[in-house]
Each structure stands twice: as C-alpha cells, then as structure tokens.
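Appendix C reproduces, verbatim, an entry submitted by the partner laboratory led by Prof. M.T., so that reviewers can inspect both the input and the predicted structure.
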Amino acid sequence: MTDLPSLSQSLASKPRVAAILLAAGRGSRFGGLLPKQFAPLLGRPVLRHAAEALLAEGLCERLLPVAPPGEEARVAEVLAGLPHLPPVPGGTTRQESVAAGLTALAQDPPDIVLVHDGARPVVPAGTIASLIAMLETHPGAIPAQPVSDTLKRGEGGLIVTTVPRDGLYRAQTPQAFRFAPFLEAHRAAKLEGTDDASLLEATGLPVALVPGSERNIKITRPEDFDRVTQDLTAQMLPRTGTGFDVHRLVEGRPLVLCGVTVPHPLGLSGHSDADVGIHALCDAIYGALAEGDIGRHFPPSEAEWKDADSARFLRHAAERIAARGAILCNLDVTLICERPKITPHAPAMIARLAEMLGVPESRVSVKATTTEKLGFTGRGEGIAAQAAVSLLVPG
C-alpha cells in the first residue's frame, strides 16, 4: 500500500472540490418513456435534484455532467443556472463515463473529486462534509450502510446458501477521492469495477467508510421513485395563499372566467382579458410562494399584457411552483356574481384550470355564490372572485 501525505500537508488552503455527475445511463430497469435521470420528480428532473443536492452545502464548487452521447444540450438545459462545466458524452459503461469526466476535469484539476449518480436525488446533509474530512487521511471515502437483512444466494428459484452479512455494506454515492491518485487508478485499471472505490482498492489504496443514509436512494425501479417522492414530500412545509380580484362588467367584451368563454351580453373590463377567476388564483399561488402578486409579474402599465389571455399568467404561476420544487395540493376558486349562472360551466372551468396547472381535476374546485343582490355584484355591475391554494414547499 502506498503511503500518502495528509490532505492538510499537501494543501495550503481549502481544497477545491468538483463533482462528476453521471447521467449517461439508460435506466432499462426503471421503464417509462424517459430515462430515470430525466423523469420529473416533484416538477423537476431527477438529475436537477441530484445536482442541487451536491451543491446545497456550498462544499462543491462546480459540477462536470456526463451525458448520454448526443444529449449534452439536454443535460445542460436541465442544469441551467447551476455552476457546471460543459457536459461531456459518457461511455457504454459507468467506468468509461467516469473516465470521460476525469479527463475533462484534468484540464484544471481539483484537489478532490466527488462521483455521484444522477439518479440519486437526495444527498443527506453532512454526507459530503464527512467524506471530505475522511480524505484528510485517506485517498478515498464512500458513504455506506451496513447490510441488515439476511443474505441468501439462490439458483433456479431455490436457496443455495446463507451468506454471512458480518462486515458487509451497501455502497452509496457521492464517493469522494483525492483527484491525483484516483485519476492514476483509473488510467491503470485492468478491471471493470461496479463502483469507483473498487479501482482504488485494486491498487492497494485504502478507502474509508462513512455512515450512509436510508434516504440516499438510487432510483432504479418505479418503487424507488415512489419512496423518494414520499421522502421529499415529508420534508416539505405546508403553505397557504389567498387571492381576491374584481372587474367591472361592460359591453363589447367577451366574458372569460377561469379560462372558459361564457355566453353573456357583457364582459369584464381590464388591461388583459380580465379573467377575474384566474387573476385571483394567480395571486393565491404567488402569495403561497411569497412572490408578490400578479401585478408584480405582469404590470398593467406594460402594453405587452393588453388584452392578453390570462392563461399565460396562470402558466407562469405553474412554472413558479415547479421552479420552487413545490407541489400544488389543491385549489378553490369562488366566483361571486348574480349572472351568469356558473354551475353549468364549472366542469369546463375545472378541466381548463387543471390542464394549465398540470394537476388532476380532483385537486381543483370552482364554485359560485351571490351576494343576495347586495352591492356591485348584486346589481350586476361586476364580478368578484376569491381563491385559496395549498402548496407543499421545500423548507
């Protein structure tokens, strides 16, 4: 075994840490129309979650994504806005993909390289710090979980033998290495390792174990996706938002309510199409996200929004939900007017709102009430709407 100086002996300052983010796999066991790393998880691709998890604690300064050949632009789009180097095409095996990442990083080598599966969207807090600390005295370190289940070796549907589980661990990622010896081990590799640590092991260099986590799930099968979804949802905070809007009824305008044109001799007056239901709903969503109101995002003073279809506003609100990694649990819109009667049109409104927000109709409620002929709505001078939404938002 080769002796190595401690990291503090070889570095005069804080180590530079980069991560190879592996996204070149096809995920045949996962099934579905998309490779698992591109599958939407709470509104964002699994790969985006994995990248943000690597960067969350500020210990990793840049990412090197390894993409399926020909899909480098797609990976770059998924990671837009994050500190990453241009994606490089991967190989036919994991080892070839890691080698492609190492070659790209070698142009400006970091002190430490992390290797992480793009299909592992959760990196529990403290994992990367523990790995980096262990590299102070070891060339490599990985998170791992002790095997707790009894292990059986089988053949032909029958048990052949029971395998002792003492000293056995389930390896996870990110795996961490001092860059120079890891690059050397890759270049000298004469075997195809099932993980990155095995290459260092083959050269006789010690690889340390740090405690892994049951939350650090690699999405391989559909049931893994369900487990991760439940885990991430459990970490979210409930948020509620409300909205209220009013528009005057006038001649010569179509009446658009909750995205549906309703037959009526009068329409609503406003800078846009004056869809009072959607405007109240947008305000409720922005409020739950603490992102202001519809006027902040679409100022009525701007000509661009004159006579605009309010569907554009609601789709923007839906994009903000997705960008925040939030979940729309349910929404409730109440339209307040004497005429027209809303109930016959409510199913179409529910379907339209659900389509724009990308949620099941079961999460959408549209109903109506009157003010018993009192006030401006009772006199038929205008229509009001109030809305409430419930979101789950990452803490």
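The CA atoms of residues 8 and 136 lie 7 Å apart. Additional entries are available on request from the coordinating office.
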